[in-house]
Fold these 4 entries.
Entry 1:
Amino acid sequence: MKRTFAVLLGCCIAGLAAAQDPSPVDESQLIGVLQSGTSSVREKAAACASLKRVVTARSVPALTALLTDNDLSHSARYVLESLPGSEAEKGLLNALPQTSGSNQVGIVNSLAKRRDPTAVGALSKLLGNSDSAVAVAAAEGLGHIGGPKSLKSLEHALPSGTGVLHEAEVDSLLSCANRLLANGDNSAALKIFRQLYDHEKSDGIALASYRGIILASGSRGIPLMMKAIASGDSPTQGAALELALKMPGPDVTTQLAGLLANAPVPVQISLLQCLGQRGDPSVSAPVAQLVASSDPAVREAAITALGDLGDQSVAVVLAKCAANSTGAERTAARQSLDDLRHGPVTQALMAALSDDSPKVRLEIIRALGDRGDASVAPTILQLARADDDAISSASFQALGTLGGAEQVPDLLQIVVQTTSDDRRSGAAGALGSISQRLESQGAQWDVQSLINAVKTGPVQTRLALLPICSGLTDASVRDALRASMADPSPDVREAAIDALCDTHDSELLPDMLKVACSDPEKRFRTVAIGGCVRLAVREEAVKLPAEKKIEIFKTILDTPLDTAQKRLVLSGLEAVPNDQSLALVTPMLDDKSVRSEAAQAVIHIAGSISKTQSEEAGAALKKVLAMSLNSATRKSAEKAYQRFQ
């Protein structure tokens, strides 16, 4: 029994293997196709493609014979150029003198791709070929292969080459030199780079060769780089500036910084960008000196570089730049103030808060807020109580970012006690930002003090604090909002309804729906309808079943609505694509005030619901197609209608 099972299993495995490879490639058969006098060009090309998978040295004679065929040379080279071994190389080399034109160029390219040094002699002879395309391909091939023999041939041919051939020879010499450089043979590479730099006229070659000279010169390349940067010679200067970022070592950084003072404006800007990217804070002093440059582009580049290089010593410099500049320069100064990370920057900024210039103090407060160091919040809170309205306003903005639960009581006190509308608004704004952050973090804080102020504070206090309630999810907040909506003060009631309609708390959805359906004020109904739509279908944190969403929209539709309110409901129904929403939207096609919006909603819903509801969807879409529509809407409706046919 076991033997029978083993035999059956073996047969299954063999059958599976045969199924996976039903037509194994046979090299002999393919060679026969290539050598056949009756096979077509197409059949031989297909045989070459198949040979690529199984080719051995046996196929070389048959493939080589095709190299002189204008129709099949490419197919044969495709196989030969990747076949390891000397046979393929010999086949390509033997065919080379028997071809011309594009076939010869193709064989040269295949030999170059193989990078076999044995091809160098044959390619060198072609450098003087009367066909410029062949000569150029040979020059490029020698550069690709590289090595001493290729180098010698290219150097020998260079003086007599002209036009595109000369350019190809130069490019190949650069390739050879860069390969020598990569292999650590700096002296040989340096010789080539110097030869090209001394004799070639092109700025591009001058740049590439001088770059090579610097790299191949080792430690002696650094003075060359510095000299080129200082010289003003465009190609060499460009090469040196390109390398300045890559040359390692603090000495290089110091020398680059030493060039700043006397360099022309464009070079100063390039050096500042380079030094900023090198990130060595030891050169921040000479960089900081250029903040006072007469050229605005240099000032901006210096300010930007200080963000990466500077420490506490430049913090006040940057604050003064931000205070006394405009536009891009001010933006750069503020960004660099935020980016400073070397040394005790916060302490330096705090010490400078006594600066006589209010503009500078404003920038320091802004920077402290943006830098996000919560340890300075108590000091910023003191500044928020200052008599200067601008300082107070900036401090409240910073506290919105920096403040925590510890600052809530003081901010509440300011809201309750101040007689200034601006300060009350600023303190309430900071409270709102802090409370939302604490809420998102799940942190413990004194929510009840806020609620007590909302319930019992003066009217102006309640008006300032009620918007904060929309960002909180708490039972006492719900009670405070409900109580405020029943307040005898119209202003308090309005603020409470606005806060209710901005809430993220799904527990307040019934209260919002009640306002949407029955409030005597049209504005409140519209705001509440918008709030219901947002909370039902747009708030990711609120997860309501589709049936509940439909129930909300149906309840609203059962009340008198104006055009704007109907459009809000349609936007909500469109986001609940099912047969129930379709049933609510379809009758609205008869309402001239929202016919266009209803048509769009029908198309969207029908395009998303199951085909099992084809009868209802088809009927609704047919009704849409009977309407007068613009071309885009009609096209969408026709496409949706086709799903149900």
Entry 2:
Amino acid sequence: MRSLEIRQNPTMTILETDYLILGAGSAGCVLADRLTEGSRDRVLVVEAGESDWHPYIHVPAAFMKTFAHPLMNWCFETAPSEGSGGRAVYFPRGKGLGGSSSINGLLHVRGQSADFDAWAQLGNRGWGYADILPYFQRSEDRAGGDDDYRGSGGPLHISDTHERHPLCEAFIEGVAGKGIPRNRDYNGADQAGVAYYQRTIRGGRRESAARTFLARARRRSTLRIETQALATSLTMDGRRVTGAQLRQHGQTIEVRARREVILSLGAIASPQLLQVSGIGAEGLLRDLGVQHRHRLDGVGEGLQDHYATRASRRVEGIQTLNERARGWRLAAEVGKWLVTGRGLLGFSPAHVGVFWKSDPALDLPDLQFVFTPASYVDGAIGKLEPFPAMTCGVWQMRPESRGWLRAKTPDMADMPEIQPNYLKEETDRRVLARGLSMARSFLATDALSPWARQETQPGPDFTNEGALLDYARAKGGTVFHAIGTCRMGGDALAVVDERLRVHGLEGVRVVDASVMPTMPSANTNAATLMIAEKASDMILEDARRDA
């Protein structure tokens, strides 16, 4: 077993390493790369899912196939809530190497500089925009970008769309006609405007964190990866976290970490593992029947997510992706992708983005829109409709509603209670209703009029903001951007400090989207990569200091 020391006792295998990374999602892959780069320290990465061998992972348009595939997806559900019309909302999370970067919508969106300045203003020193910009740049390879904002030569290739559909061009023209500027680079100086989305795609294939960061690390002898290994609890010696117990192929394994244990399991599993290990609110731990080891009332609290709703219209006189995705046309598209990496299979789900304001009085955009020359059955991602159509989705970028993540049993294999409390706050309801009204107007511009026909979602019966809100409650869903359940800060409900060390404990950090104190105005994968880049420097700095 390369890079590890192994001991046997009568009941379990004991492994020893320097750094133990639990979770091989976006953050875990970055950490594996950076902690093995030019270092002799041994790193073990543990992933509950499988390797990223399945072809669906690597074909961008197969996003819809991974959306509910149990091999690649934990297929969670939220608890019902009033904001979702009393429904449980399907809540996909990545399972396997690359985590959610292996199943996400491939959009690369950093957010607004004010998002990160707000993190610093909350007391998290070193997390302002000027501090974290170099880490965004270090991750990426962006050809032709502004050197003041963009990076080149990094592991993650950021590409532009390879085909500009006439409906996309007309959509942009129509949005620009409403006074919304065209934006050459929404990841540059200013986010506001309309633009084609930038994508984590290279040569027609998905650039997951496993295919980029982890692929580099795998060439180093100091790294070991264990898949299909579920972390079941953390092990502790007093206030120090010393390792973790795993369950792999029916066997129990204990891993001991000489330097640190790093939780990179994501906004759902990181707090769940802390809770089942006896770290969290005393009442919850008592209800779980687990030994109370360390009180941290904020573990699992503060869950936030983006909640989206969509408008769709039939089109006529032009081919959309709906037709290209069936029959002989689909067979031709498969052949085209295999030969060139282009065509339907090389698309990200959303083609054009708009970042704009629900109220002209606002200083910064609070709404994000996604446009695609396609539409989905019942307005939900998963199956394309059988007729030509186009869709514009929308979500409020900085929701105020917060919920929680709570383990329901001491077994990490059991789904926890996930309650984002969608649309709980009045501001969220008002902004989303206005955003849906704007999305409808974006599909009804003069530029789209040669092709646009009747609206299919929400439909002509929805004539005011109250009705639109009812539609959003009934048909909306997650944008897969869960954050905040191990929040960074210094207040009573914060879980980690500004160096991502768990408050009151030694030898353990949390490095993933769960540490975000507030929601960035963006899809969250780019910010998660940035967090892991910065965390790797802090981990190595602390190791040098302690040497």
Entry 3:
Amino acid sequence: MTKKETEEFILNESFEDLLNETIGKDTKFEGSVVKGTIIELDSDFATIDVGLKSEGKVPLKEFNASAKDLTVGDQVDVYIERVESKNGSAVLSREKAVREEAWVELEKLYNNGEHVVGTIFNKIRGGFAVDVMGTVAFLPGSQIDVRPIKDATPLMNNPQPFAIVKMDKQRGNIVVSRRAILEENQEETRAELLSKMEEGQVVKGIVKNITDYGAFIDLGGIDGLLHVTDISWSRINHPSEALQIGQTIDVKITKFNKETNRISLGMKQLEENPWIDVSKRYKVGQVVKGKVTNITDYGAFIELEKGLEGLTHVSEISWTKKNINPAKVVSTSQEVDAMILEVDEEKQRISLGLKQCTPNPWESFHNEHPDGEVIEGPVKNITEFGLFIGLNEEIDGMVHLSDISWDISGEEAVKEYKKGDIVKARILDVNIEKERISLGIKQLTEDTFESSLKGIKKGSAVKGKISKVLEEGVEVEINEELHGFVKVTDLAKAKADQDVTKYNEGDEIEAKVISIDRSSRQVTLSVRALEIAAEKEAIAEYTKNEEFTSSFGDILDNALNSKK
């Protein structure tokens, strides 16, 4: 080996040893936190010199909220992950450096249950990123406030306290909660409020939430329920008619359950109750003026004075229009006259009537048309129970099926009429209370059944001719207009003679009137009853004759003849 070759060998060998020595020394820095100097800044990275063979680059996002304040020449702590990467530069981490420094302190605070100060600096999936002592913690969306919030912008970039709820050093995860801090504060405020709270107390509150049944009022850390019926003495369909979210109001504590901490509130209780002594101010039969405040399917509410309303039921709106939609008669804010029908101070109810302020058409009709008068009008409707005849523009009268004809059934008689026919009828009865007028068509003529009954009554004996022989008995023509019927069992006293085959049409028969049914226009007869009555009369005559000059048979014949 020449001298030159020997010198080159020694030189190369010394450089290799020196290099190995230097690299071995540098590798001892891996996994440690060292101070470095920022020598260059761009939009995404900070280039930092930590005294190694080469510099390293750290993403600006690892500096969190403080990244905007960095300048060239600043010294910062960084964590050395590797002395040299594949591209020959050092691999550094600001985030891990901060974590290493902060982790011990955070674990101490976490174990002691103490709070930390952090800054929300970014919104991420599922929540927010929080800078806590230079390290990034996760704030879940559900833990940002005690209630859901739409916009978290006002909370960002402002230092505020947080509770550490979870730490995982192996994964490097820290979870914090702002809600826990707020709930602690609320609990303290709540306990103080509850200790001072009493029924009857008047307090200020803020409308927090509005529902169909009322509103929740924030009393300064504790909520109370203001039911819709306790907002105003006037009728309110929905709380939003009187309240707005965020509105500050005065309320009275009407009920306070110390066991459940449930609070009931009232607004109307701060005003004088208009229902006190209402029965002294409003009397049944009194006509009052009022304003229509609400219209429903079942009636209309009318305000008589502030906070005092009465209800006009749909049945009390019109004399003649039944089940009418109230909105077709009155409108909201309309001033109307109404009559007081009932006052219930205890139940806080006033019943009103609109129709009572106008003439009763049935009463007016009755005053103009007395019972028995004959009227004329068109057939307005035909139903299964009769005819309705129009009497004027407002009311109708009814002819029942039984009052159409004397001689034929109502079902048959009604077939002779159709809508629009002009008919005459007699007024039978006007019931003002029931709003009903009864009419009769058959009453325009004499009842042939009644005229045919002249001289005939129950218990009397009649003669007639058999007009029809049936299995169940015989039909008897008493006169041209009147027919009777004798059942088989009433044809004779003796059972042997109770046989319809022994009778023929045209045979004369004598019988006793058992019943007269004017509704069915039927007369029931009995030969048997006539014979029994004659027999009893003969026995009585025979027993009182002491000389027995006549035989019993003669007396019985005389009794039967006398019946004839």
Entry 4:
Amino acid sequence: MSTDPSHSQPHMGKPMELRAGPLTMVLEADTGFLRYVRLGERELLRGVYAAVRNENWDTIEPEVRDLKVAVAERSFQVTFEVECRRDPVWFTWSGALAGEADGTLTYSLDGVARSTFLKNRIGFCVLHPAETCAGQEVRVEHVDGTVETGVFPEQISPHQPFREIRVLTEPVGPNAGADWGKWRFEVRMEDEAFEMEDQRNWTDASFKTYCTPLDQPFPVEIAAGTRVRQSVRLRLHSPNCERPSMPPLLGSGTGSGDEPVRLRLDPDRSYPLPDVGLQVAGHGRPLSPREVELLRALRLSHLRADVRPDAPDFPVALELAAEQSRLLGVPLELAWFLPEDPETVRGLLVAELERLRPEVARWLVFRGGRLVSDAEGLAWAREVLTAYQPEPVVGGGSNTNFAELNRSSLAAADLDFVSFAVNPQVHAFDDASLVETLPMQEVAVRSAQARFPAREVYVSPVTLRPRFNAVATGPEAPPHPGALPWAVDPRQPSLFAAGWTLGSLKYVTQSGAAGITYYETTGWRGVMESDDGSPAPFPSVPGTVFPLYHVLRDFQECRGGSLLACRSSRPLEVEGVYLRSGDGERLRVLVANLTGAPRLVSLDFPAGKVRVRTLDETTSELAARDPEAFRVPQDAEPVGAWEWRFTDGSLHLELRPHAVVRIDRE
């Protein structure tokens, strides 16, 4: 491969746009994560990356060093060194990524264990985009040389669609352009057996092909000095050796920031707004009068509380939940975590319910430390609760991800409703990966509806981080001094979290879910900081509200109305919702920039006078310290340039990084 030496240089920092013949892609220089491999408008791969995961499936973050890039017009070479180190894990590897002018792409690693440790996985993961691949044909060559032709599953597959994989081959398809329509592309994975899982089970937007197969024992010890070598190669195949014309360079694969993102409204499709609630805060402190006032303004539908009747603090926890339910004027969504033999707590449970008489909208029931409800536990709870409520609404599902529900033996007849939890950080933790999960929340709910027909689906709870490690094979290590607990995300009080929450509200509403439970009331996993504040180093100020509070409040002010369907031309960058009031007289649009760079947006909107409020880096301090003053909207007249402009039934605006804009019109 020829390269121009003048373009060979160390390169760290922001993502790099690369080209290999007709292919475009993005390389994250700080992590070695290759993203958005595209041929024209067709996204062939969502990503390729190497993962080191310990015995509890924790990902050991890579530290990339000595990165060098040599770029020619239609080819490139990248090399770098990686260290993955978190006691007792210490693994280093050399990475090489090469793109050729004919579209061949090769990614290889050569690594060595510097210490002896337990591992569940070391090696490449290849991500196929779920949106374009679901239902599409794929040819699978297995490690023993046999070949099968199948399809990527349309409904979320509970188990591995394909195993013992060496090569995956699929059509390029028409989205790459007419010249490429009959071509195919193959992905070859060498040096270890791979298998595929449907990552939509965890709301990741991909089918992941990974090593080592899960039917092999884990964790296993990897001794110091053990060497690991792997490679992944992508190649294009012509049906008749013809060479189509090369498409122009398209940039990052998520669209060009120079062109406006278009939000298209479909007013003929609408969805009723679901019930929205919060969780009782895990810190266990009562709500102050100011916190109660701010939370009541959210017009919540319910308050979720998790109680364990066999825990020493059960009476206190139930009393706190009942009191906060009364203060906020909403019923409880009460999640019971019963012991294996629930008869041992029947007397206490019945006595506390009679003492406190909480108002409960529905009961989620789990038993014996299980992650998924079971028919016996549900039946026991129904029998006990019938004496408390004439017709208790008893249900459950998964206390973790949709995956556990999808793999369970639960039947619709076992429960009155079904629920599962959502978080976007089971497999990846960067902002872009979190944004990719948003449409998959709708897919997961629709899969639950298909699995449990005639049962309402509740997404409960939605959190930024997993609340606990459901797949740990050993005790969790405490956080390092000065570090946040594993379940706390420092982005909770960020503008990014506000935009992510808006996207979640959109897609869960479009799914037809009956209700959603978000976050907690106060504290470092809440919608606002508590009056007492959270321990350092959590980046918040006591008594302030978080940006996502305002998104939830904007949404809930339209409670009783509907969401009108709209589509973003670049949903990984900008998302929006159109909300119509229950009387049909008012229209509210919320638009979020999901990126850290300014974005131009053009959205369907009738010309005229509007009321506008912008939540961004210039207003976030006011929004946090004095939310009521911030929420007073301003009249906005059409103006020149790109800040605000009406033309041809569209409103044009420029959003600052991670900004959320609210636009109201009577």
